[in-house]
Amino acid sequence: MVEYHAQLDRVFGSLSDATRRDILRRVARREMSVGEIASSYDISLAAVSKHLAVLEKARLVTKRREGKLQVVGLAPAALSDAAKHLERTRAIWESRLDRLEKYLEKQP
Amino acid sequence: MTADTENRLTIVRVLGAPREKVWRALREPEALAQWWGLPDGAAMPTCTIDFRVGGALHCRILHDGAEIWFKWIYREIVEGEWLVMEQHFSDAAGRELDSAARPVSTITLRLEDMDGKTKLTVTQAGMASGVHPVEAYKQGWSESLGRLAESLAHP
Questions:
Q1: Could you tell me the end-to-end alpha-carbon distance of chain A, in angstroms, rounded to an integer?
Q2: Which of A18, A54, B110, B137 could bridge across to B121 with cysteines, CB 3.0–4.6 Å?
Protein backbone atom coordinates (compact mmCIF):
# COMPACT_ATOMS: atom_id res chain seq x y z
CA MET A 1 0.00 0.00 0.00
CA VAL A 2 2.79 2.39 0.89
CA GLU A 3 4.49 1.55 -2.37
CA TYR A 4 1.23 2.06 -4.22
CA HIS A 5 0.85 5.53 -2.73
CA ALA A 6 4.45 6.39 -3.46
CA GLN A 7 3.81 5.35 -7.03
CA LEU A 8 0.67 7.49 -7.24
CA ASP A 9 2.55 10.45 -5.79
CA ARG A 10 5.11 10.00 -8.54
CA VAL A 11 2.40 9.83 -11.19
CA PHE A 12 0.60 12.95 -10.01
CA GLY A 13 3.87 14.70 -9.27
CA SER A 14 5.04 13.99 -12.80
CA LEU A 15 1.83 15.29 -14.24
CA SER A 16 2.02 18.56 -12.30
CA ASP A 17 4.52 19.94 -14.82
CA ALA A 18 3.30 21.39 -18.12
CA THR A 19 6.34 20.31 -20.14
CA ARG A 20 6.06 16.75 -18.90
CA ARG A 21 2.36 16.67 -19.72
CA ASP A 22 3.18 17.93 -23.17
CA ILE A 23 5.86 15.29 -23.63
CA LEU A 24 3.37 12.69 -22.55
CA ARG A 25 0.81 13.89 -25.09
CA ARG A 26 3.39 13.70 -27.86
CA VAL A 27 4.65 10.23 -27.05
CA ALA A 28 1.07 9.05 -26.57
CA ARG A 29 0.52 9.63 -30.27
CA ARG A 30 3.65 7.82 -31.37
CA GLU A 31 7.05 6.77 -30.10
CA MET A 32 9.68 9.47 -30.41
CA SER A 33 13.41 9.62 -30.02
CA VAL A 34 14.86 11.71 -27.19
CA GLY A 35 16.42 14.09 -29.73
CA GLU A 36 13.11 14.52 -31.51
CA ILE A 37 11.37 15.34 -28.24
CA ALA A 38 14.09 17.82 -27.30
CA SER A 39 13.80 19.63 -30.62
CA SER A 40 10.18 20.50 -29.76
CA TYR A 41 11.18 22.63 -26.79
CA ASP A 42 13.26 25.68 -26.04
CA ILE A 43 15.08 23.86 -23.30
CA SER A 44 18.33 21.93 -23.24
CA LEU A 45 18.64 18.27 -24.05
CA ALA A 46 19.75 17.78 -20.45
CA ALA A 47 16.58 19.40 -19.15
CA VAL A 48 14.48 17.20 -21.42
CA SER A 49 16.37 14.15 -20.21
CA LYS A 50 15.56 15.14 -16.64
CA HIS A 51 11.88 15.40 -17.45
CA LEU A 52 12.04 12.02 -19.15
CA ALA A 53 13.73 10.51 -16.13
CA VAL A 54 10.88 11.76 -13.91
CA LEU A 55 8.29 10.32 -16.27
CA GLU A 56 10.17 7.06 -16.48
CA LYS A 57 10.43 6.78 -12.71
CA ALA A 58 6.68 7.33 -12.45
CA ARG A 59 6.36 4.55 -15.03
CA LEU A 60 4.47 6.83 -17.37
CA VAL A 61 6.90 6.32 -20.24
CA THR A 62 9.26 3.59 -21.27
CA LYS A 63 12.59 4.03 -23.00
CA ARG A 64 14.16 1.55 -25.34
CA ARG A 65 17.22 1.60 -27.53
CA GLU A 66 16.79 1.37 -31.27
CA GLY A 67 20.19 1.40 -32.93
CA LYS A 68 21.76 4.68 -31.90
CA LEU A 69 18.49 6.19 -30.82
CA GLN A 70 16.76 6.20 -27.46
CA VAL A 71 13.09 5.79 -28.24
CA VAL A 72 10.45 6.93 -25.78
CA GLY A 73 6.92 5.60 -25.70
CA LEU A 74 3.89 5.87 -23.47
CA ALA A 75 3.46 3.24 -20.77
CA PRO A 76 -0.33 3.07 -20.67
CA ALA A 77 -0.65 1.08 -17.46
CA ALA A 78 0.32 3.94 -15.14
CA LEU A 79 -2.11 6.30 -16.79
CA SER A 80 -4.93 3.89 -16.53
CA ASP A 81 -4.31 3.81 -12.76
CA ALA A 82 -4.89 7.55 -12.70
CA ALA A 83 -7.96 7.10 -14.89
CA LYS A 84 -9.28 4.56 -12.46
CA HIS A 85 -9.41 7.29 -9.83
CA LEU A 86 -11.94 9.13 -11.89
CA GLU A 87 -13.87 6.03 -12.72
CA ARG A 88 -13.95 5.19 -9.06
CA THR A 89 -15.24 8.65 -8.21
CA ARG A 90 -18.04 8.11 -10.70
CA ALA A 91 -18.95 4.84 -8.98
CA ILE A 92 -19.01 6.60 -5.60
CA TRP A 93 -21.45 9.18 -6.92
CA GLU A 94 -23.70 6.68 -8.64
CA SER A 95 -24.04 4.74 -5.43
CA ARG A 96 -24.52 7.90 -3.36
CA LEU A 97 -27.29 9.05 -5.66
CA ASP A 98 -28.95 5.61 -5.53
CA ARG A 99 -29.01 5.90 -1.73
CA LEU A 100 -30.25 9.48 -1.92
CA GLU A 101 -33.14 8.34 -4.12
CA LYS A 102 -34.05 5.61 -1.65
CA TYR A 103 -33.79 8.04 1.25
CA LEU A 104 -36.10 10.54 -0.45
CA GLU A 105 -38.66 7.81 -1.18
CA LYS A 106 -38.80 6.94 2.52
CA GLN A 107 -39.35 10.53 3.62
CA PRO A 108 -42.96 11.69 4.01
CA MET B 1 -21.86 10.45 -16.96
CA THR B 2 -19.08 12.22 -18.72
CA ALA B 3 -15.46 12.73 -17.88
CA ASP B 4 -14.27 15.64 -19.93
CA THR B 5 -10.80 16.72 -20.81
CA GLU B 6 -10.35 18.69 -17.60
CA ASN B 7 -11.01 15.67 -15.43
CA ARG B 8 -14.37 16.96 -14.49
CA LEU B 9 -16.88 14.32 -13.76
CA THR B 10 -20.51 15.27 -14.39
CA ILE B 11 -23.45 13.19 -13.28
CA VAL B 12 -27.09 14.19 -13.67
CA ARG B 13 -29.88 12.49 -11.78
CA VAL B 14 -33.59 13.33 -11.72
CA LEU B 15 -34.95 12.74 -8.23
CA GLY B 16 -38.63 12.14 -7.54
CA ALA B 17 -38.93 14.77 -4.84
CA PRO B 18 -39.41 18.54 -4.74
CA ARG B 19 -36.39 20.75 -4.57
CA GLU B 20 -36.71 21.80 -0.90
CA LYS B 21 -36.80 18.18 0.13
CA VAL B 22 -33.67 17.34 -1.84
CA TRP B 23 -31.96 20.41 -0.41
CA ARG B 24 -32.70 19.24 3.12
CA ALA B 25 -31.12 15.90 2.27
CA LEU B 26 -27.98 17.79 1.27
CA ARG B 27 -27.64 19.75 4.47
CA GLU B 28 -29.08 17.75 7.38
CA PRO B 29 -26.72 15.40 9.20
CA GLU B 30 -29.36 12.67 9.74
CA ALA B 31 -30.09 12.73 6.03
CA LEU B 32 -26.46 12.78 4.95
CA ALA B 33 -25.77 9.81 7.20
CA GLN B 34 -28.22 7.84 5.06
CA TRP B 35 -26.65 8.43 1.70
CA TRP B 36 -23.34 10.29 1.80
CA GLY B 37 -20.24 8.11 2.01
CA LEU B 38 -18.60 5.42 -0.05
CA PRO B 39 -19.95 2.36 -1.82
CA ASP B 40 -18.89 -1.24 -1.61
CA GLY B 41 -19.79 -2.20 1.89
CA ALA B 42 -18.42 0.87 3.61
CA ALA B 43 -20.45 1.71 6.69
CA MET B 44 -22.37 4.94 6.49
CA PRO B 45 -20.35 7.86 7.73
CA THR B 46 -20.44 9.57 11.09
CA CYS B 47 -20.37 13.27 10.39
CA THR B 48 -20.29 16.62 12.03
CA ILE B 49 -21.60 19.45 9.96
CA ASP B 50 -21.15 23.19 10.08
CA PHE B 51 -23.34 24.30 7.23
CA ARG B 52 -22.11 27.74 6.26
CA VAL B 53 -19.57 29.13 3.85
CA GLY B 54 -16.17 28.35 5.37
CA GLY B 55 -17.69 25.63 7.56
CA ALA B 56 -17.25 21.96 6.81
CA LEU B 57 -18.77 18.54 6.71
CA HIS B 58 -16.28 16.30 8.50
CA CYS B 59 -16.93 12.57 8.27
CA ARG B 60 -15.49 9.35 9.54
CA ILE B 61 -16.05 6.43 7.23
CA LEU B 62 -15.30 2.85 8.20
CA HIS B 63 -14.24 0.58 5.40
CA ASP B 64 -12.95 -2.94 5.97
CA GLY B 65 -11.99 -2.00 9.48
CA ALA B 66 -10.04 1.03 8.32
CA GLU B 67 -11.00 4.49 9.44
CA ILE B 68 -11.06 7.16 6.76
CA TRP B 69 -11.65 10.82 7.37
CA PHE B 70 -12.83 13.32 4.83
CA LYS B 71 -13.53 16.99 5.14
CA TRP B 72 -15.73 18.88 2.74
CA ILE B 73 -15.37 22.63 3.16
CA TYR B 74 -18.36 24.67 2.01
CA ARG B 75 -17.21 27.33 -0.43
CA GLU B 76 -20.52 28.57 -1.84
CA ILE B 77 -24.05 28.11 -0.66
CA VAL B 78 -27.07 29.42 -2.53
CA GLU B 79 -30.04 28.27 -0.49
CA GLY B 80 -32.03 25.59 -2.28
CA GLU B 81 -30.07 25.85 -5.50
CA TRP B 82 -26.38 25.53 -5.41
CA LEU B 83 -23.62 24.13 -3.25
CA VAL B 84 -19.86 24.15 -3.80
CA MET B 85 -17.65 22.03 -1.55
CA GLU B 86 -13.94 21.39 -1.47
CA GLN B 87 -13.07 17.78 -0.69
CA HIS B 88 -9.99 17.04 1.40
CA PHE B 89 -8.60 13.85 2.80
CA SER B 90 -8.45 14.57 6.47
CA ASP B 91 -7.68 13.18 9.90
CA ALA B 92 -9.82 12.86 13.01
CA ALA B 93 -8.89 16.36 14.14
CA GLY B 94 -10.02 17.84 10.83
CA ARG B 95 -6.55 18.61 9.57
CA GLU B 96 -6.28 18.47 5.79
CA LEU B 97 -3.93 15.82 4.41
CA ASP B 98 -3.46 17.18 0.93
CA SER B 99 -0.79 15.64 -1.26
CA ALA B 100 -0.32 14.76 -4.90
CA ALA B 101 -1.93 11.38 -4.37
CA ARG B 102 -4.68 12.88 -2.25
CA PRO B 103 -5.60 15.86 -4.33
CA VAL B 104 -8.17 18.42 -3.33
CA SER B 105 -11.20 18.29 -5.54
CA THR B 106 -14.18 20.55 -5.94
CA ILE B 107 -17.71 19.24 -5.82
CA THR B 108 -20.61 21.27 -7.14
CA LEU B 109 -24.22 20.28 -6.55
CA ARG B 110 -26.91 22.11 -8.48
CA LEU B 111 -30.65 21.68 -8.02
CA GLU B 112 -33.29 22.58 -10.60
CA ASP B 113 -37.06 22.15 -10.60
CA MET B 114 -38.41 19.70 -13.13
CA ASP B 115 -42.19 19.24 -13.05
CA GLY B 116 -42.35 18.57 -9.34
CA LYS B 117 -39.17 16.55 -9.51
CA THR B 118 -35.64 17.79 -9.04
CA LYS B 119 -32.76 17.62 -11.42
CA LEU B 120 -29.53 17.24 -9.49
CA THR B 121 -26.30 17.92 -11.36
CA VAL B 122 -23.12 16.82 -9.64
CA THR B 123 -19.69 17.80 -10.87
CA GLN B 124 -16.44 16.83 -9.29
CA ALA B 125 -13.31 18.42 -10.65
CA GLY B 126 -9.65 18.19 -9.84
CA MET B 127 -9.44 14.56 -8.80
CA ALA B 128 -6.18 14.37 -10.67
CA SER B 129 -5.45 18.00 -11.25
CA GLY B 130 -3.17 18.84 -14.08
CA VAL B 131 -3.69 15.60 -15.93
CA HIS B 132 -4.27 16.37 -19.55
CA PRO B 133 -5.89 14.13 -22.08
CA VAL B 134 -3.89 11.66 -24.04
CA GLU B 135 -5.51 8.97 -26.07
CA ALA B 136 -4.52 6.21 -23.72
CA TYR B 137 -5.90 8.12 -20.82
CA LYS B 138 -9.25 8.68 -22.49
CA GLN B 139 -9.51 4.99 -23.19
CA GLY B 140 -8.89 4.48 -19.51
CA TRP B 141 -12.18 6.18 -18.62
CA SER B 142 -14.07 3.17 -19.77
CA GLU B 143 -11.97 0.83 -17.71
CA SER B 144 -13.22 0.32 -14.29
CA LEU B 145 -12.88 0.60 -10.58
CA GLY B 146 -9.55 -0.64 -9.38
CA ARG B 147 -7.44 0.88 -6.75
CA LEU B 148 -9.05 4.07 -5.58
CA ALA B 149 -11.12 1.96 -3.21
CA GLU B 150 -7.88 0.76 -1.71
CA SER B 151 -6.39 4.20 -1.58
CA LEU B 152 -9.53 5.52 0.05
CA ALA B 153 -9.68 2.65 2.48
CA HIS B 154 -6.06 2.96 3.49
CA PRO B 155 -5.10 6.58 3.02
A1: 45
A2: B110
